[in-house]
Write a structure and sequence with these properties.
Elements lengths: L2 E5 L2 H10 L7 E4 L5 H7 L2 E5 L2 H8 L11 E5 L5 E6 L6 H12 L2 E3 L3 H4 L5 H7 L2 E3 L5 H11 L2 E5 L9 E3 L8 E3 L31 E5 L2 E7 L5 H14 L7 E7 L6 H10 L2 E5 L1 H5 L8 H7 L5 H8 L4 E9 L2 E7 L13 H12 L1 E7 L10 H9 L2 E5 H6 L8 E5 L4 H13 L3 E6 L9 H24 L4 H9 L4 E6 L4 H9 E2 L5 E5 L7 H13 L3 E5 L7 H12 L7 E6 L7 E6 L12 E5 L5 E3 L2 E3 L4 H5 L1
The chain binds S-adenosyl-L-homocysteine (SAH).
């Protein structure tokens, strides 16, 4: 997504930099009327942090069309309001304004009527269902009718699922919207015409103000003589569709024989409308049964027929709506695709489509720190990463603390000690191209998941080297296949910091970490106890303030009492000690004690213990370690 953020004042510039947390690839530029015309063509999202009047005056001469104009969002310098000014629906300005407001904790200002009235908007519904809007000028009128009547009447012969506020009608004459590939929904189907005629009346009556939405479900098979110009091919296609009451806007793609793929006229016609061409070999075409054959075509191409079998193959063996028609130098046949997919070249949606593909191509792991517990202490950037992830992986207790952010997401959770399983799962999913958020409480790089993710990726790298050797040697071995799968895609990792227990607990206690400190985990699950003792001893001797994580590892009381014993060898029994349980959570408990009495208080696995240095003092039941300002102040 291309985003440009424009500012005038220093304060706006600071806000622009903050927004880079939401749009890391955004370009931040100083506003000047001269820079806007270039950006207008280049960028899909323009965010202005300035007065709306300046923006309105600047962009007025550039505004053309809601299908192509970029999204324009205006923000006040305080970041309190994100105004969706232009291209709210198709351009995405409403979506951007909402994103920005939620990121900054402000309010999105949305004025499009369907949003205000909580109704589906016709243009977005069309976009999401890959329907082509035939007459854009009718969209606001249909929207107004929708809002005034509280419902829309829709005629469709496609089986598409309609939103609740759309009422289905079987009479095209009563419909506001018509979803069909029939050029004219009023014409009788061929079977009902006298004598089964296929010619439709040219001037069937239409009610004024009805909007046609076209499903892209037609495949046009084309055969042509060498050198047939694009105009002639287009004329043949349009003529055939008209004659059979089918809409040109419903064309999904073209199909032909492989030797015609570089035929200039055909390529130019496809290019003009952004149609993809599916090409088949003569063998493939000849395998299609029940096709009328032509000796001339066989002589020229090796295929008994082109247009009909190519259209049938490309449509996934769909219905043949129009059998082969020979018009001048071209032959045209039309089929209806089985199933519908959204991916299609052209049609103004290129950027979105290619973005989807890009996301699939490489996996992403966000290793997210969610802070000590409450939602307010998770950074907006981390919240956004969780929103962007397809799958959330974490330890039950931490996921529980952030459940409001997880609505509707796929979640993989395990017990606390199964962190290898969790990280392994993350790497596997990212190998499949997924975006995964691995959740750690506090900061993900402090006694948490970030290191393990990198260790596994390092192993995976080694595996991918091994894979190359293995595939050379034992291409078929099951192991080689497993490794190929596991090591197949590139994975990017982003570590997103969080407020660690040391920050949260220190804040609750006052300012105990003002001077050099050592952080020591008393857990001997992954570290030998002798090493932990050695570090306790060294830190105590060097008069570091100490923060003890995992003070009751596996419920073992002796760890914390042994730590106390070691520290007491170097520090007075009156040294202030802060004990914080569940900092920034609903059950938070803060205790100030001292080194000799600290064990009289409840210390468990949700607790961190801060031990002051020889200068740490208590004041007003707060624990403060001086930095040395007392000498400066005198
Ligand atoms: N990554 C985490 C630490 C994980 S180790 C972080 O940066 O905070 C788990 C230990 O952290 C717990 O045993 C406890 O000692 C400490 N801890 C985590 N959250 C805490 C909180 N809200 N209050 C007090 N201690 C906490």
């Amino acid at each position: 997504m291309s985003v440009v953020i424009l500012y005038i004042t220093d304060r706006a510039c600071t806000l622009a930099q903050r927004l880079k947390g939401l749009y890391p690839d955004a370009k931040v530029a100083k506003f000047g009327p001269g820079v806007i015309p270039g950006l207008w063509e280049e960028s899909r999202n323009l965010i202005f942090i300035m007065a709306a009047g300046i923006v309105a005056r600047t962009i007025a001469p550039l505004i053309k069309d809601k299908k192509t104009d970029p999204a324009v969002i205006v923000l006040d310098e305080g970041g309190r309001f994100a105004v969706s000014l232009l291209s709210g629906h198709i351009g995405g300005a409403n979506e951007r304004a909402r994103e920005i407001a939620s990121f900054l904790g402000g309010e999105a200002v949305i004025t499009t009527a369907s949003d205000v009235n909580n109704m589906p908007s016709v243009d977005l519904w069309a976009r999401d269902n890959d329907l082509v809007i035939e007459e854009w000028a009718l969209v606001p009128k249909i929207g107004a009718r929708f809002i005034n009547n509280g419902a829309l009447r829709v005629y469709t012969d496609t089986g598409i699922k309609l939103p609740d506020a759309f009422l289905k009608t079987s009479d095209p004459g009563l419909a506001d919207l018509l979803v069909t590939n029939k050029k004219d929904a009023y014409s009788a189907p061929a079977a009902c015409m006298p004598g089964g005629a296929t010619q439709y009346p040219a001037s069937a009556c239409r009610v004024k103000g009805q909007l046609y939405l076209r499903p892209r479900d037609l495949v046009v098979g084309i055969g042509c003589n060498s050198g047939t110009p694009a105009d002639e091919i287009e004329g043949a296609v349009r003529g055939t569709l008209d004659k059979h009451n089918l809409s040109f806007s419903s064309i999904h793609s073209l199909a032909t024989i492989d030797i015609k793929i570089s035929e200039q006229g055909l390529a130019a016609f496809a290019e003009k409308y952004g149609f993809e061409i599916a090409a088949f070999t003569s063998d493939e075409l000849n395998r299609v049964k029940g096709i009328s054959k032509s000796k001339v075509v066989f002589k020229a191409t090796g295929a008994h027929a082109v247009a009909e079998p190519a259209a049938l193959l490309a449509s996934g063996n769909g219905d043949l709506l129009v059998p082969k028609q020979k018009i001048g130098n071209a032959t045209v046949a039309v089929t209806k695709r089985l199933g519908r997919t959204k991916e299609r070249k052209g049609g103004g949606m290129k950027e979105n489509d290619s973005k989807k593909r890009e996301l699939k191509a490489s996996g992403k792991i966000y290793v997210v720190g969610t802070g000590p517990g409450s939602i307010e202490h998770i950074t907006p950037y981390a919240q956004n990463a969780i929103r962007k992830a397809d799958i959330i992986i974490g330890y039950d207790t931490y996921l529980d603390l952030i459940k409001e952010l997880l609505g509707g997401k796929e979640v993989f959770s395990t017990g606390m000690t199964r962190e290898i399983d969790r990280c392994q799962k993350a790497v596997e999913l990212a190998s499949e191209g997924k975006t995964v958020a691995v959740i750690s409480g506090g900061d993900p790089g402090i006694y948490a998941m970030a290191g393990l993710v990198f260790e596994l990726l390092k192993d995976r790298n080694a595996l991918s080297v091994k894979r190359d050797e293995l595939t050379e040697k034992a291409n078929e071995s099951l192991d080689a296949l497993r490794i190929t799968h596991y090591a197949s895609r590139p994975i990017t990792v982003e570590v997103i910091p969080g407020i660690s227990a040391l920050n949260a607990c220190a804040a609750r206690l006052g300012a105990p970490l003002m001077h050099d400190f050592a952080s020591i985990s008393l857990s001997d699950r992954l570290t030998p106890w002798e090493l932990i003792e050695k570090r306790l001893e060294a830190a105590a001797r060097a008069d570091f303030v100490m923060i003890l994580y995992n003070p009751k590892s596996r419920g073992r009381v002796e760890h914390i009492s042994r730590a106390q014993e070691i520290i007491l060898k170097h520090r007075s029994g009156n040294t202030p000690v802060g004990i914080v349980k569940g900092a920034m959570r609903a059950d938070e408990r803060v205790v100030i004690s001292n080194l000799k009495d600290m064990l009289d208080h409840d210390i468990d696995m949700q607790t961190a213990v801060i031990i002051g240095n020889s200068k740490t003092f208590l004041w007003n039941n707060l624990m403060i370690t001086p930095r040395g300002y007392e000498n400066k102040r005198q």
